[in-house]
UniProtKB/TrEMBL annotation, chain A:
Residues 136-502 form the Aminotransferase class I/classII large domain. GO terms for biological process: L-alanine catabolic process. Belongs to the class-I pyridoxal-phosphate-dependent aminotransferase family. Alanine aminotransferase subfamily. Gene3D superfamilies: 1.10.287.1970, Aspartate Aminotransferase, domain 1, Type I PLP-dependent aspartate aminotransferase-like (Major domain). It catalyses: L-alanine + 2-oxoglutarate = pyruvate + L-glutamate. This is alanine transaminase.
From TrEMBL, chain B:
Belongs to the class-I pyridoxal-phosphate-dependent aminotransferase family. Alanine aminotransferase subfamily. GO terms for molecular function: L-alanine:2-oxoglutarate aminotransferase activity; pyridoxal phosphate binding. Its cofactor is pyridoxal 5'-phosphate. Keywords: Aminotransferase, Pyridoxal phosphate, Transferase. It catalyses: L-alanine + 2-oxoglutarate = pyruvate + L-glutamate. This is alanine transaminase.
Length: 515, 522
């Protein structure tokens, strides 16, 4: 299937969808319901739900979908297509799946293909192995709530290899529905207490909105610690200390969340910094949550990914036997970018046994993670080995994707930094740039009058004028008086270049218009 | 091979008495019963639980960790069989959950071919797969960003699939309109139910939120309600009347929780799980009137809607509501749940489900949308399963014949009938007609001696029975006490959506075991 036409189809499909989602006459039942009060109203619904916000899929994205529809209906716009650089969705941006992964999954779905010669032997063997661990040899059976045992074993082996031999117990591995399922579940376990004893959770600012959304929903106290933009979004222990001391006055801080490599900020933590964070968590008795879903996405020279688990264990028993840690990984990022499968795992270290039992119970409520996602996780942690028929192809596909990402990270930083009024830290890792933008006073005033955050105003204007969909920094949190946007580095190189040029032009026009 | 950790949800159940008017409080870390250990507080990591929840938690913990006495035994059994210990059976038949594929039901070829083609589009080149399979895969991929099932979908699901699901609903309901904007696809219906409960259960009110819930009831739902800080208010289905839902009992239940909680929703399971009843239209109308009068939000769990074996037809709550006309049809708020895990397809592992919302306040719906946003997007293969379930091959399509051949309804109906006959022929067993669903839930009249023996072992009598059944006959069923039952009555639940031969073997083992058991304890 030719990719160009497929994109076109996609657009058509999208627009038809939004037409039905938005435009068609509403059904009678739901619209005439005003004659008497609702049972469930915004006044009596669970108030914590009202505090949930999710910028990555917020108003800008909704407008982008509308614009796509308008375009397809022939409406004139100053651009030919909407480019969604708002979300870390690699395949949507044209990245191709890893052949081996998809072969195995296709075989697992339809095992009759095992007799087909188009599939390499190692893919077939792998599919058989996965199917043997599924109930009734089918991906359509429920798995255990914690995940398929053989997959958890493979995850444990992967972690041991990754961490230079630090042991990993499969019983500590929980397969999840994407990393977010694990993160939310852990937060649920941690949150308790009333008033000044209410649990507080430390998150970085800027942060990934999943954290703020989950904390709002749970009614937990969000404790902000600011990353140091001047020092390439690095984490200062003194800032952690400041945030913690302040928070202790009004809540009970229990957990510290770290995203490494950073989202949206793209920094990669140094080993030293991780050690300091672990010491801090140990000293202050905080539960550590390490979001490490971008662990393969490290581009900058001199930067290396160090897992919290590895560093923790290399710090000796004083730490490795006491500090409680949950670390998260997923199939959605790195070189695979398989977001649609909702595969992921978490590893839990040093957690109280009885709490673990509660965790198992919590997980059992959602029955099990999607089995194809579990199968995919298995392939990610246990890819083809040297000597196997699929090895060469796998390595070349993986290398191509990762080196293209590295190149695009560099390109993004370079181009954005040529623009007056945009300053971009190096994208050391992950999939985003998070440049700071100068917004003229006049624009800030107009935004405020519209009841909009200035960077939301900026991004909305950019979308209307250029068709580029970004997420304003205010959706992630930022220091007061600073403005940013998050842009993915995922579009194909040529498209990315066009996109960056358009951003540049827009910024200049915008600055001119409002100065 | 199962291990200790492969525990199953039905046994992760609540131990508090089902017969108390309202089982207060949550066992998770909800505010009112804040109780999980503070990692930051306790050097030795000893949890600081308030004593009240502690016992409760302990029990559940044990249930959860060990999978309960049954599952421990199961595990040992399997291990022993593996180790060559002689047992009176070759392998354990696990009918403790409604998982058709695990029970040996084969996946539908059409479904799996489409999935394979979506996963590996190279399969669409050439004639390997039937043309309708290729067309469908093509159409589905057209709806996916970047032509890949690996991309995120929109919140609430791929719009084309949502659209087709809404058309399915409208067809099913005899033309009652269904608006795609009111449909959210998600990671299984249970996930959606928890999301909606999350909006209903107001954790900040001083008075806890109550949800009227059938007894017996699927145990994951009660766990969800309590986990969110809500209160389960049980209403008992009338076993004598074929597990009928009686509106007087709803009144009683509502009265019973006065002063203990603020009831906001009424949860119904139709066709029933575990009870297997199918509600009549008249009964549904009564329920709707009751919900309207008492100002309750209706939660209709309709995941077994295509599993119907008797004379009674399945009618959706949405349809009945709509046909009752205004003012009811314009006012009663309803959330209806469906899933790809059951019915013909039985694709539990793909995790595809949806909820349709009716008459919701648009302002509330906005927040529900945001909640679903935070879940990223539902698994795409699960969404595809829903698409295929709601839009199966049509007459004339190359896959049509095969699709319907393997799933002849009459085979299933005969199986179910046979199962009920066999059970009812056994002394001490009585099984209401299984009109729908996936389970039989027969009552066992246990001899006093067996009850005594169970008590001595510190077990519920039906748990004791199931444990013996597992040990001696290699059949893993689950005890009625996990689902809630009238005090002094005992039941077992087992899945009947099984291939003919497996069901035959199951019934044979059960019969032999039961006869011997009754002899031993009479």
């Amino acid at each position: 299937m030719n990719h160009g036409t497929s994109l076109l189809w996609k657009q058509r499909a999208l627009s038809s969808l939004s037409a039905t989602r938005r435009g068609l006459p509403k059904e009678k039942m739901s619209e005439n319901g005003m004659s008497r009060g609702k049972v469930l109203t915004i006044d009596n619904m669970n108030p914590t739900v009202k505090k949930v916000e999710y910028a990555v899929r917020g108003p800008i994205v909704q407008r982008a979908v509308e614009l796509e529809r308008e375009l397809s209906e022939g409406m004139k716009k100053p651009f030919a297509e909407v480019i969604k650089a708002n979300i870390g969705d690699a395949h949507a941006m044209g990245q191709q799946p890893i052949t081996f992964f998809r072969q195995v999954l296709a075989l697992c779905s339809y095992p009759e293909l095992l007799s087909d010669s188009i599939f390499p032997e190692d893919a077939k063997n792998r599919a058989r192995r996965i199917l043997n661990s599924c109930g009734g040899n089918s991906m359509g059976a429920y798995s255990a709530s914690q995940g398929i045992e053989s997959v958890r074993q493979d995850v444990a082996l992967y972690i041991e290899r990754r961490d230079g031999g630090v042991p990993c117990d499969p019983d500590n591995i929980y397969l999840t529905t994407g990393a977010s399922d694990g993160i939310v579940t852990m937060l649920k376990l941690l949150v308790c207490g009333e008033g000044a004893a209410r649990a507080g959770v430390m998150i970085s600012i800027p942060q990934y909105p999943l954290y703020s959304a989950a904390l709002a929903e749970l009614g937990a106290v969000q404790i902000n610690y600011y990353l140091n933009e001047e020092k390439c979004w690095s984490l200062d222990i003194s800032e952690l200390q400041r945030a913690l001391n302040e928070a202790r006055r009004y809540c009970n801080p229990r957990a510290l969340c770290i995203i490494n490599p950073g989202n949206p900020t793209g920094q990669v933590q140094s080993r030293q910094c991780i050690e300091d964070v672990i010491r801090f968590a140990a000293r202050e008795r905080l539960f550590l949550m390490a979001d490490e879903v971008y662990q393969d996405n490290v581009y900058a020279e001199g930067c290396q990914f160090h897992s919290f688990k590895k560093v923790l264990f290399e710090m000796g028993p004083e730490y490795s036997e006491t500090v409680e840690l949950a670390s998260f990984h997923s199939t959605s990022k790195c070189y695979m970018g398989e977001c649609g499968f909702r595969g992921g795992y978490m590893e839990i270290i040093n957690m109280d046994e009885e709490v673990k039992a509660q965790l198992t119970k919590l997980l059992s409520v959602r029955l099990c993670p999607p089995v194809p996602g579990q199968a995919l996780m298995d392939l990610v942690v246990n890819p083809p080995q040297p000597g196997e028929p699929s090895y060469e192809r796998f390595i070349s596909e993986r290398t191509a994707t990762l080196s293209a990402l590295a190149e695009k990270a560099k390109l993004t930083e370079q181009v954005l930094n040529t623009v007056d009024g945009i300053r971009c830290n190096p994208v050391q890792g992950a999939m985003y740039s998070f440049p700071r933008i100068a917004i003229p006073e006049k624009a800030i005033k107009e935004a405020t009058e519209n009841g909009q955050q200035p960077d939301m105003f900026y991004c909305m204007k950019m979308l209307e004028e250029t068709g580029i969909c970004l997420v304003p920094g205010s959706g992630f949190g930022q220091k007061d008086g600073t403005y940013h946007f998050r842009m993915t580095i995922l579009p194909p190189r040529d498209k990315l270049k066009i996109l960056l040029n358009k951003v540049q032009e827009f910024h200049q026009r915008f600055t001119q218009q409002y100065s | 091979m199962l291990s200790l950790t492969t525990l199953r949800f039905p046994l992760v159940s609540l131990r508090a008495s089902r017969n108390s008017p309202a089982r207060l409080g949550s066992m998770l870390s909800c505010r009112r019963r804040a109780s999980l250990p503070a990692p930051g507080r306790h050097k030795g990591r000893i949890p600081e639980w308030d004593t009240e929840t502690r016992t409760d938690m302990r029990t559940v913990v044990q249930q959860a960790v060990s999978g309960g006495p049954l599952h421990t035994a199961f595990w040992e059994d399997e291990a022993e069989i593996g180790a060559g210990v002689k047992k009176p059976f070759k392998e354990v038949i696990d009918v403790s959950w409604g998982d058709p594929h695990r029970g040996g039901v084969k996946p539908l070829t059409f479904v799996r071919q489409v999935l394979a083609a979506c996963l590996y589009p190279q399969l669409m080149n050439g004639e390997k797969l039937p043309v309708d399979v290729r067309q469908r895969a093509q159409k589905l991929l057209d709806g996916c960003a970047g032509w890949s099932v690996g991309s995120y979908s929109a919140t609430g699901g791929l719009p084309e699939i949502v659209q087709r699901v809404s058309e399915f609903i409208s067809r099913r309901d005899g033309g009652v309109p269904s608006n795609p904007e009111n449909i959210f696809l998600c990671c299984g219906s249970q996930w959606a139910l928890t999301r909606i409960l999350n909006v209903l259960v107001n954790a900040e009110e001083p008075y806890p939120t109550g949800v009227l819930t059938p007894a017996p009831c699927y145990s994951t739902t009660t766990l969800s309600i309590e986990g969110l800080g809500g209160v389960v208010v049980p209403y008992y289905l009338s076993e004598e009347r074929g597990w009928e839902l009686q509106v007087e009992e709803l009144h009683r239940a509502l009265e019973s929780c006065k002063g203990a909680c603020h009831p906001i929703a009424l949860y119904v399971i139709n066709p029933g799980n575990p009870a297997g009843q199918v509600q009549s239209r008249k009964s549904m109308q009564e329920v709707i009137r009751f919900a309207s009068e008492k100002r309750l939000f209706l939660l209709a769990d309709e995941v077994y809607q295509s599993c119907i074996y008797g004379e009674k037809e399945f009618v959706s709550y949405k349809r009945v509501l709509s046909e009752m006309g205004p003012p009811l049809s314009d006012t009663v708020e309803l959330a209806s749940f469906h899933s790809a895990s059951k019915g013909f397809m039985g694709e539990c592992g793909l995790r595809g489900g949806y909820v349709e919302l009716v008459n919701l306040d648009p302002a509330v719906k906005k927040y529900i949308y945001t909640l679903f946003c935070a879940d990223s997007s539902p698994p795409v293969l699960g969404q595809i399963a829903l698409d295929l379930m709601t839009n199966p091959p049509q007459p004339g399509d190359p896959s049509y014949l095969l699709y319907y051949q393997v799933r002849s309804r009459s085979t299933v109906v005969n199986n179910v009938k046979k199962a009920c006959e066999v059970i009812n022929s056994l002394q001490g067993f009585s099984c209401q007609a299984v009109e729908g669903g996936a389970f039989a839930f027969p009552r066992i009249h246990l001899p006093a001696k067996a009850i005594q023996k169970a008590k001595e072992a510190g077990m519920q009598p039906d748990t004791f029975y199931c444990l013996r059944l597992l040990e001696e006959a290699g059949v893993l069923a689950s005890p009625g006490s996990d689902y809630g039952q009238e005090e002094g009555t005992f039941h077992i639940r087992f899945c009947i959506l099984l291939p003919h031969d497996v069901l035959g073997e199951l019934l044979l083992r059960l019969s032999n075991f039961h006869t011997q058991f009754m002899k031993d304890y009479s």
